[in-house]
Amino acid sequence: MKVDVMSIEGEKLREVELPSAIFEAPINVDLMHQAYVRQMANARLGTHDTKVRSEVAGGGAKPWKQKGTGRARQGSRRAAQWVGGGRIHTPHPRSYEQRMPKKMRQAALRSALSAKAAEAGVVVVDDLSLSEAKTRVMAGALKNLVGKSTALVVLSEKDQAYEMVMRSTDNLVDAKVLLAKYLNIRDLFGYDKLVLPVKTLDALAAHLG
């Protein structure tokens, strides 16, 4: 699949062939869904907690004697049926972690990238070097490249250009910057366009094989 290579000013410079193994892979919706659910589940802290009857304060004395009152027998005011009592069948700390083999995660990313490319959602830029680390500079560059669409910018490595792009994008609510090795299914689906400098294509090929 060939796509245009754009300058940071939004002008077409040439064409480039996207790696077919990554951008023309079979689109497996079930696999992408599994990877997305796994990522969302693993992001949960699982710190929710409620107190059972042994953890709430009070309840040492029996409310009334066992027999002779005509009322139901009660052993503690901290039982679940009492106001202020403990709770039953309610959440406690737990792990929501889901496991997924690395090869399946990589296949899900290839599938998502192929779907993005099929929808003309991949924008390749020749070089994403900014003149200065300013939000307005990055906003102008993204406007030239993707218009009003939201954008996920994927860079190949942490270098000086990465730091400038990252600092310039921090205050943009409709854009995000990631390294290629941290590319994930949630962010791919969360933005309209995928912005890739040319050298990032090699990084993705090395990461996703």
Would you spell out the secondary-structure blueprint of this structure?
Blueprint: E1 2-6, E2 12-17, H1 20-23, H2 29-42, H3 102-118, E3 122-125, H4 135-146, E4 151-155, H5 160-169, E5 175-179, H6 185-190, E6 193-197, H7 198-208
Parallel strand pairs: 1-3, 3-6, 4-5, 4-6
Antiparallel strand pairs: 1-2
Helix pairs in contact: 2-3, 4-5
| Main sheet characteristics | 6 strands, mixed
Question: Uncertain segments of ≥5 residues (pLDDT<50)?
Answer: none
Helix and strand composition category: alpha/beta
Query: Mind telling me the C-alpha Rg?
Result: 27 Å
Read across the widest sheet, the strand sequence of neighbours is 2-1-3-6-4-5
Under CATH, the homologous superfamily of the domain at 2-37 and 100-208 reads Ribosomal protein L4/L1
CATH top level class name of the domain at 2-37 and 100-208: Alpha Beta
Number of helices: 7
**What is the 3D form?**
elongated
Mean pLDDT: 93
Amount of helix: 25-40%
CATH topology of the domain at 2-37 and 100-208: Ribosomal Protein L4, Chain: A
Provide the succession of SSEs.
EEHHHEHEHEHEH
Summarize the structure.
The chain has 209 residues and is an alpha/beta fold. Helices cover 35% and strands 14% of the residues.
Describe this structure in words.
There is one protein chain. The protein is built from seven helices and six strands, in the order ββαααβαβαβαβα. By secondary structure, the chain is α/β, with parallel strands linked by helices. It has a domain of 145 residues: Ribosomal Protein L4, Chain: A (3-Layer(aba) Sandwich), CATH 3.40.1370.10. The protein has a six-stranded mixed beta sheet with strand order 2-1-3-6-4-5, sandwiched between helices. A hairpin with a 5-residue loop joins β1 and β2. It is elongated and about 95 Å long. The two termini are 17 Å apart. The mean pLDDT is 93.
